[in-house]
TrEMBL record:
Domain of life: Bacteria
Transferase in keyword set: yes
Designated name of the protein: PLP-dependent aminotransferase family protein
Record-level Gene Ontology MF annotations: transaminase activity
Domain HTH gntR-type residue range list: 18-86
Stated family: In the C-terminal section; belongs to the class-I pyridoxal-phosphate-dependent aminotransferase family.
Keyword RNA-binding: no
Keyword terms: Aminotransferase, DNA-binding, Pyridoxal phosphate, Transcription, Transcription regulation, Transferase
SMART domains in alphabetical order: HTH_GNTR
InterPro entries for the chain: Aminotransferase_I/II_large, HTH_trans_reg/aminotransferase, PyrdxlP-dep_Trfase, PyrdxlP-dep_Trfase_major, Tscrpt_reg_HTH_GntR, WH-like_DNA-bd_sf, WH_DNA-bd_sf
Pfam family, one: GntR
Length: 487
């Protein structure tokens, strides 16, 4: 695509309400889905596109990564992105609907097109957020699954004949409610828990049920790209919330965003914990403005330093916060099992929407996980892997500080399965990623998780990090730094 052609499709304007990333992403997506940008077209490199459009390279990289998440472009190292699809995908103009002056309706009978979740295949070592498959309790889980398979799992077994089949298993809801009270300080009725096929499904349901296309959603910057993709997929407009040592900053009093997405226990990817003062301030903001907080508690099981604060949901009235949990970090992402805690009055519309969209979790997996929680085997497994992950995270952080000193900065890790290594000036993110991928590692690009933060660096997983892997990782990264600094 020549420079003049690129400007025909997108002219990002800092004066508009949408972020530059959202403008570039939406404009190029419209061109691809309408066929105006044909399949096979090669887009300019991120460096060239940034120069043409007058924006930062991080802004272009993030827009390109969002297009890749939807399967619209293919991106390979040292090659210009190529358009791979889009003509069959419906166009969603995120700027078409202004913010509604009254709270949006709760939709439970819409139809929705499918959009790819924002996951990137990472087969290498030390990928962020991925548990060590070697620590998965295969034998114990197999026994539990066999027990569950002996039960009759027809949908009618879980609801009276006159009621629609329940997408969520009551026994699992009860176990989860007990666990949330014990571990997260939450008092919820089991009926408030909606079981889904993953956090991505939970986020998509929230966006589609509680908001309209064009509504604004505030998101941590940098932040979880999968959440951003779910919101964009529902036609919402993500806007950045900057971070500091206390976590995300509370929006101004007059802000009227519909949703506020937070990872308060272990901010993804920087690892800051949202302070208690900030948590209370966010809840107060939600009460005054009618916003709904999405509390993604994706890895609160892994907490390495300091005293954990209760879940945000436990600090409010139960109406300001929707709580999101998952098994993907403590067990495996491939189980596709997650849950939401929603206000009582929203249980019916969420359940109806879940049925309409077919976004239910496998009942046999639900039964097995509920049995495992009840037996105590899950908590024993969690204690074992927590000790292991804590050692590996501390070892990785120590080696990175020893090897790179003031050339980088990193926080923690205080918990979770990954840490963010932020580059100082002069460190080349592209060169580091290329070298590490060639050596068999799969860290994430920090700049791709930014809306406006402008950070570069790596998000590094340590769940599968051994001493040998860490040594090889540091040596490879040091060599890439040395190569980038050579005149």
């Amino acid at each position: 695509m020549e420079p003049l052609t690129l400007l025909q499709f997108t002219r990002p304007d800092p004066g508009r309400t949408e972020t530059l990333v959202s403008q570039i992403y939406a404009d190029l997506r419209t061109g691809m889905t309408s066929g105006a940008i044909p399949v096979g077209t090669r887009l300019p490199s991120s460096r060239r596109a940034a120069a043409i459009l007058g924006v930062s390279r991080n802004t272009v990289n993030t827009a390109y990564d969002l297009l890749r998440a939807e399967g619209l472009v293919e991106i390979a190292l040292q090659r210009r992105p190529v358009v791979t699809g889009g003509s069959a995908m419906p166009v969603v103009d995120m700027r078409a609907a202004p913010l509604a002056p009254t709270p949006p309706r709760v939709a439970s009978n819409w139809t929705c097109d499918h959009r790819e979740p924002c996951f990137i295949d990472r087969n290498g070592a030390m990928a962020p957020g991925r548990p060590d498959p070697a620590l998965f309790p295969h034998e114990a889980w197999a026994r539990t699954l066999r027990r569950a398979s002996r039960h009759r799992l027809a949908a009618g077994d879980f609801a009276p004949p006159s009621s629609p089949p329940s997408p969520s298993l009551p026994a699992l809801r009860e176990e989860l409610a007990r666990g949330l009270a014990r571990d997260r300080g939450m008092t919820v009725d089991p009926s408030q828990i909606i079981i889904t096929g993953g956090t991505q499904a939970s986020l998509a349901l929230v966006a589609l049920v509680l908001a309209r296309p064009g509504d604004r959603v505030l998101m941590e910057d940098p932040g979880y790209m999968g959440a951003r993709a779910a919101m964009l997929g529902a036609g919402l407009v993500p806007e950045p919330m900057p971070l500091d040592e206390e976590g995300a900053r509370v929006p101004p009093a007059g802000d009227r965003a519909r949703l506020v997405y937070l990872t308060p226990s272990n901010q993804y990817p920087l690892g800051h914990r949202l302070s208690l003062a900030r948590r209370l301030a966010f809840i107060d903001h939600a009460r005054r403005t009618g916003a709904i907080i999405l509390e993604d508690d994706y890895d609160s099981e892994f907490h390495w330093r300091g005293r954990e604060i209760a879940a945000m949901h436990a600090l409010g009235s139960g109406r300001e916060v929707i709580y999101l949990g998952t098994t993907s970090k403590a067990l495996a992402p491939t189980l596709h099992l997650a849950w939401m805690v929603v206000p009582t009055e929203l249980v019916k519309p969420f359940t109806q929407a879940q049925r309409n969209l077919g976004m239910m979790a496998n009942l046999q997996i639900q039964a097995a996980y509920g049995d495992w929680l009840a037996s105590g085997e899950y908590r024993a497994h969690l204690r074992r892997i927590s000790r292991c992950y804590a050692r590996r995270g501390a070892m990785l952080a120590e080696r990175l500080r020893e090897a790179f000193g003031k050339r980088v900065s990193l926080h923690g890790p205080d918990g979770g399965l990954q840490l963010a290594l932020v580059f100082r000036a002069g460190q080349d993110e592209d060169a580091a990623l290329q070298a590490l991928h060639a050596a068999g590692f799969s860290p994430s690009r920090l700049s791709a998780l930014c809306l406006q933060a402008g950070m570069t660096g790596l998000v590094i997983g340590f769940a599968d990090a051994t001493e040998q892997k860490i040594t090889r990782f540091c040596d490879t990264l040091a060599a890439s730094f040395a190569g980038a600094e050579t005149p």
